[in-house]
Amino acid sequence: VREVDNRRDSESEESEEENPAERNMICIFSRRFQLSVPKLASRRRVVQELLSDLLRVSHNLFSDSFFPVLEPVIGVGSACEGWSPHKEEDIVYCMFVPLKPPRGHAFHLEPDSTGEMPQTSMRVRVELVCTCTGEQPDQNMMCFLHHSEQELKRNQVASLLHTLCTGPYLDGEKIALWFQTFVISAWSMVPQSRRYSMKVLPSCRSCKMKLMKASGRNLFLETVFSVQQGDSDIFLSSQPPEAQLPPSTTWLESYAVAEAKFFRHVAMQAPPRSCHLKCLRLCARILEGSGLSVYALKTTVMHLLTLIPLSEWQHKYLLMRVDDTMRYLRCCLEEKRLKHFFFANEDMPQEISLPPAFQGAQPLNLFQHLARDPAAQTEALKKFDDL
Predict the structure, then answer these.
(1) What's the pTM value of the predicted model, to 2 decimals?
(2) Locate the Mab-21-like HhH/H2TH-like domain: which residues (predicted)?
(3) Does residue 150 sit within a domain?
């Protein structure tokens, strides 16, 4: 942090004239790692419109059923944030679809006692609630609690507990299969079916789709199901990391919505042609093969965006910000400590809503595995320095 402050002081003293050699280097990097933010935004809108149209169809088809209520989609991940490290043809647009309980049901979040996952995990217990009493009793449905089983079987479709749950818990695999089946059957009902052909790709916890244009251009999108924690920007996600496969009733805590909100906040506050997205993409390409996760890099840049004034992320400072990022990462590797951005962070923008427990929680260390394994730290430092 002291090094960042010293660099900031030196930048404020220099004249507005850029060093010609440095300006030329910035141009070279900009062309080599060109990122079309408007193109990413345009394709993100296509994906959001498609899913919004599909959700409208689902609301019509399932209005008399007791499947989860599908809330408006939320774009998350690097492609929706505007800085994807992948080649254009490999970009996947990830969308969260929050789930709300249907009529006569309630969701209760419970800590997952299996203890199989390294990150926070929970289960979503589904509970039946009375609909025949209260201020506005629902006259169009029978109460699951106060009508007989025979009446319910004869006159009403099954409850959520009997369709997409395993025991009393919401099942991510069953939800994914249900939604995949719906997408295939409903595709002809959305206007995008006239411009694209569509294929549902294999996935057990999400819905992955490939959209193909006659020109040969493809769009990839992934719908991930989520449950909001209270009124916060922290959600539980149905989709685990690729290397992990917990039980289908285990939902993992995800910070993706809060991260997307943070980058929207930065975009609104930053100067025109801010270099923070290009810095992220460039560093991600530099770090390929290092073994460092893209998430560690993203966390580093988020920390720096709160440490360095946004006025000093102008395009002409790109190489300095890249240097700051790499030095910060190197120090974290040496210290075997990289603080998670959303725990006990006093610099958190007020627009981001976190559960109260996050402020008093012990900061999570994303490099905890290096602290436990000195050999892994030595190897990580060697790979980083080789780059």
Answers:
(1) 0.87
(2) 291-351
(3) yes
- For residue 333, what are its two tokens? 């590797």
Same-domain status, 133 and 81:
yes
Structural domain of 335 = 270-386
Which one, of 315, 314, 318, lies nearest residue 283 by Cα? 318
Residue 134 placed within a domain: yes
Q: Looking at the structure, do residues 75 and 150 belong to the same domain, yes or no?
A: yes
190 phi, psi to nearest 5 deg: -105, 145
Please report whether residue 245 resides in a domain.
yes
Give the model confidence (pLDDT) of 156-182 as tens digits. Answer: 778 899 999 999 999 999 999 999 999
Residue 367, SS3 per DSSP: coil
**What b-and-e string marks burial along 97-122, b requiring 16 or more CB atoms within 10 Å of the CB?**
bbbebbebbebeeeebeeeebeeebb
Q: What is the pLDDT of residues 203-228, one digit of tens each?
A: 999 999 999 988 888 999 999 999 99
For position 352, which CATH number holds? 1.10.1410.40
Q: 222 and 324 share a domain?
A: no
Among 192, 221, 254, residue at a domain's last position = 254
Say if residue 257 is exposed, middle or buried (CB neighbours under 10 Å; 0-12, 13-18, 19+).
Answer: buried
Using CA atoms, how far residue 55 sits from 42, 97, 182, 189, 386, in Å, is 20, 9, 10, 11, 48
- Which tens digit of pLDDT belongs to each residue from 30-81? 555 555 667 888 899 999 999 999 999 999 999 888 999 999 999 999 999 9
Which residues lie across from 163 on neighbouring strands?
none
Encoded tokens for 201: 């790709």
Does 156 share its domain with 286? no
14 occurs within a structural domain: no
Token pair 């079916």 is found at 193
Q: What share of the chain is helix, strand, coil (3-state, %, to 5)?
A: 45, 15, 40
Q: What angle do CA 77, 80, 85 make, to 5 degrees?
A: 65
Q: What is the CATH number of the domain that holds 221?
A: 3.30.460.90
Look at residues 169, 219, 165 and name the one whose alpha carbon lies nearest to residue 47: 219
- Residue whose structure tokens are 């935004």: 41
- Cα angle value 94/34/257 (rounded, 5°): 25
